[in-house]
Amino acid sequence: MGGALLLALLAAARANETNLTTTSFPDEEKAPLFPTDLFTEEQRRSGAVIFHMIGMGYMFVALAIVCDEFFVPALDVIIERLAIRDDVAGATFMAAGGSAPELFTSIIGVFVSFDDVGIGTIVGSAVFNILFVIGACALFSRTTLTLTWWPLFRDCTFYSISLLVLIYCFRDNEIYWQEALVLFSLYGAYVLFMRWNQPVEKALKKLIYKNKVTRVRSTDQLMPTVSSPAQPRMHLPIGPIIVVMNVLYNYMFMRFYCTVVIQIRDRLEPEEAFHV
Q1: Which residue blocks in the chain are alpha helix, DSSP H?
Q2: pTM for the predicted model, two decimal places
Q3: What's the mean pLDDT when you consider all of the chain?
Q4: Cα 62 to Cα 180: distance, rounded to the nearest angstrom
Q5: Contact assessment for residue 269 and residue 251, using Cβ atoms and an 8 Å cutoff
Q6: How does this protein lie in the membrane (predicted)?
Q7: How many CB atoms lie within 10 A of CB 263?
Q8: How far apart are the first and last CA of the chain?
Q9: Half-sphere exposure of residue 95, counting CA atoms within 13 Å on the CB side?
Q10: Deepest in the core among 3, 27, 145, 237, taking most CB within 10 A?
Q11: Computed from CA positions of residues 134, 103, 168, 124, in that sequence, does the dihedral angle turn out positive or negative?
């Protein structure tokens, strides 16, 4: 229902778009606006490209330090102050911080290099995060991870809806401002949904598991338990009880032994009888 409503809004936005008749000129390929390199092509082929590799390594190390030393502690403080769950924080604040490089990559791809690298970067990074990152965390984790199906189901549902809307917007290779507003509103709806994430999760799990039968190990667990008023417990001395039981056991055993010996003596002949 929601997807059909979004498609209807997008269709109405395209219908209201005014078609201006302009003179068609051949498409001119725009030159990228990248700054000029410090090294010439011959110098890069001669080994100067190593400096670019060192710069990339420096940026990776700097990004790791910023995330470990500043971003993650700041996220912990935000979670504590706002009293939100870890999965909600990871899907909003952490995801926004982790996707910031993709945002700037898309901006550079649109306004600087004039290519469509941004779409592949955003969609491909989501697939990389879902498949590779989750698998790597499970492989290299030193502790047992307790995972549930709800965060994956929730995020994959919104991700699938966003991809369908994105495909619809790209069907004519153009993006209008109404379509961009719809895409931006979808993310706003996702963040707003996180406000009621926990109640929705409880309601959905209650609906799914309402007829679930719990497996028991014994039929004793199937018997109804009758609640009885609490009786005061009597604390008996265990040591004296064990001593008394031991004396009674020895007494009964000696009685049994003597009885058996007497019966055997009576059945024997007088000359074979013996005294106990």
Answers
A1: 2-16, 41-43, 49-66, 72-82, 86-89, 95-98, 100-111, 117-128, 134-140, 149-169, 177-193, 197-208, 238-267
A2: 0.57
A3: 74
A4: 33
A5: no
A6: Multi-pass membrane protein
A7: 9
A8: 100
A9: 17
A10: 3
A11: negative
